[in-house]
Each structure stands twice: as structure tokens, then as C-alpha cells.
């Protein structure tokens, strides 16, 4: 996976009002690392996310602030995941006066409300509650650029994970209508067309849903099944059985995480009364009899 990732420099100015600083935590889950963003053009700036407390990130942030002759007035956290929040204490050691904001704040933090604005010279950010990846997830519109900080709902490469698919799709639909400019994601490179990328995400999720429905409606490969398997509800599928069909071209090492997404699709379809769950972890189409 690492060899397929686009190179991202540790620090890069992406626009007159936006600089990206990598959190120094690359991995198969964080891609090149978590993106943090310094926003504004004057002496007081906004910081979006804080990484997970890696010394390289703090050093890079300090270096940028010194070069820019700027300080962090407010830090805005997109969501609670540790790779976006654990740098808060380091930030406060560097900049004790910084106010930290987060939806559903913890002790010492201030709340972010849907529609709340944060303004510094050269940048006005509007917060948008976009649950799905997490319940507290916030995106931020940069009004001057008609661009969007998408957090982990939309990435610069690959697809995102989510806690609740139905909620996530509603948030994506809302995000698609917000801006016509670029996207600044929580991981991966900047996206030049936010609307097109979000539409691509929505289409991908619907394609996966169609694949699940089609596979549930198909016959299992009986010759490859043991007699005991055949005798058990051939019309019902476990999530991993669905994964092995839908993701047959994906390395098996990724099948387990893929099953989490399939379960989310199945739960959404159950909420829509289109599938039923029976016998622990076996799913079938509503109205299709078990054999």
C-alpha cells in the first residue's frame, strides 16, 4: 500500500490561507499520516486537528509558526480519534493561550455547534456537523475559497471507514452541496474538486450496496461447500462469505476489515426492511425463503 501512495511533503502551502503539516504518523490506516492545517494569513491562525503527539509534528508546527510570525488562536478538532486529538497537550505546551474546540468536548475543550463560524485574518471557517465516520465528526467550509476541510469522511486517496452507513451517506449528500472548490482531507493529498470526489464516494457506496444485494440473491457455489454447509440455509450468507465474493480480487489480508463495511451495508438494508438476520450472523433477502 505504501508504494501506491502519492508523496506528501511534511509541510506545504496549499493556498494563500492554508498550510498542511503532516502529523508524522504514516501507517496503513493513516496513509501518509494525519493532515493538520494552519489556516489564515495574519498573526493569529486557526489549526485544524493536532495529530497524535509526534515530536516531528510539533517541531514542524513550531518552525512554521516562527517563519510565519504567527500563533494558534484556536484549534478545531474534526473528531475524537486519537490521530487527530492526541497532539492537543503538546500544542498547549507550545501555545498555552490556544482555545481548543470539538463537538462533544472533553474537559478543557469548548463545544462546536453546527453552523458556528471561526474567523481570523484571511479565513472564515463555518462548522458543519457531518456524522458517519464518528458521531462527533465536523467538516469546515473555508468561505474565502469555497473549499471544504472534510476530516475523515472523505480522504485524498482510497475510501473512508464509518460507524453508521445510513448516517454517513446523509452527511456525504450534505457535504456534496456545500462547496464547488477543493477539498482538504484528513488524510491523503488535497483534492481539486470536492464535489466530484464526494459524488464518487456516494457512487462507490451505492455500488457496494448493489453488490451485496446481488450476491444475497445469487446461489452459493455449492460444489465448493461441504455437505454440512449445504444443509444449512443455502439462501443465507455470513458477512465473510459475501466478502469472499465481492472482494475476490482484493488480498485476503484485507477481507477482515472489508467485512466491517459489509456488515454496515447489511444493517442499513435491515433498517430499510430489505434483508433479515437469522441464526447469529447469516443474512438473506427479505421474502427469500431459507432452503
Automatic annotation (TrEMBL):
Coiled-coil residues are: none
Under the GO molecular function aspect, what terms does this record hold?
hydrolase activity; metal ion binding
The cross-references to InterPro entries, in alphabetical order and at most eight, read: LACTB2-like_MBL-fold, LACTB2_WH, Metallo-B-lactamas, RibonucZ/Hydroxyglut_hydro, Sec-metab_biosynth-thioest, WH-like_DNA-bd_sf
Question: Which SUPFAM superfamilies does its entry note?
Answer: Metallo-hydrolase/oxidoreductase (SSF56281)
The UniProt entry, under Pfam families, shows: Lactamase_B, WHD_BLACT
GO biological process terms, alphabetically, are: secondary metabolite biosynthetic process
Keywords assigned by UniProt? Hydrolase, Metal-binding, Zinc
| Residue intervals of the Metallo-beta-lactamase domain | 33-187
Q: Which cofactor does it need?
A: Zn(2+)
Q: Which PANTHER family match?
A: ENDORIBONUCLEASE LACTB2
User: Which family does the record assign?
Assistant: Belongs to the metallo-beta-lactamase superfamily. Glyoxalase II family.
Name of this chain's protein: Uu.00g138470.m01.CDS01
Amino acid at each position: 500500500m505504501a508504494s501506491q501512495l502519492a508523496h506528501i511533503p511534511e509541510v506545504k502551502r496549499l493556498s494563500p490561507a492554508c498550510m498542511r503539516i503532516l502529523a508524522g504518523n504514516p501507517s496503513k490506516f493513516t496513509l501518509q499520516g494525519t493532515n493538520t492545517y494552519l489556516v489564515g494569513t495574519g498573526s493569529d491562525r486557526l489549526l485544524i486537528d493536532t495529530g497524535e503527539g509526534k515530536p516531528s509534528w510539533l517541531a514542524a508546527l513550531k518552525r512554521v509558526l516562527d517563519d510565519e510570525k504567527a500563533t494558534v488562536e484556536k484549534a478545531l478538532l474534526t473528531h475524537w480519534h486519537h490521530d487527530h486529538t492526541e497532539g492537543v497537550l503538546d500544542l498547549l505546551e507550545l501555545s498555552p493561550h490556544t482555545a481548543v474546540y470539538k463537538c462533544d468536548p472533553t474537559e478543557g475543550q469548548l463545544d462546536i455547534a453546527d453552523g458556528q463560524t471561526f474567523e481570523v485574518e484571511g479565513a472564515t471557517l463555518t462548522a458543519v456537523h457531518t456524522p458517519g465516520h464518528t458521531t462527533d465528526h465536523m467538516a469546515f467550509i473555508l468561505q474565502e475559497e469555497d473549499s471544504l476541510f472534510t476530516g475523515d469522511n472523505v480522504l485524498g486517496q482510497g475510501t473512508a471507514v464509518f460507524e453508521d452507513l445510513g448516517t454517513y451517506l446523509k452527511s456525504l449528500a450534505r457535504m456534496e452541496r456545500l462547496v464547488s472548490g477543493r477539498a482538504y482531507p484528513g488524510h491523503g493529498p488535497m483534492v481539486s474538486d470536492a464535489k466530484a470526489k464526494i459524488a464518487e464516494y456516494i457512487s462507490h457506496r451505492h455500488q457496494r450496496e448493489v453488490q451485496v444485494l446481488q450476491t444475497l440473491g445469487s446461489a452459493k457455489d455449492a460444489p465448493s461447500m461441504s455437505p454440512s454447509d449445504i444443509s444449512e440455509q443455502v439462501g443465507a450468507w455470513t458477512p465473510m462469505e459475501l466478502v469472499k465474493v465481492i472482494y475476490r480480487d482484493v488480498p485476503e489480508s484485507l477481507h477482515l476489515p472489508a467485512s466491517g463495511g459489509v456488515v454496515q451495508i447489511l444493517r442499513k438494508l435491515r433498517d430499510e426492511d430489505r434483508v433479515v438476520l437469522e441464526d447469529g450472523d447469516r443474512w438473506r433477502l427479505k421474502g427469500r425463503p431459507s432452503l
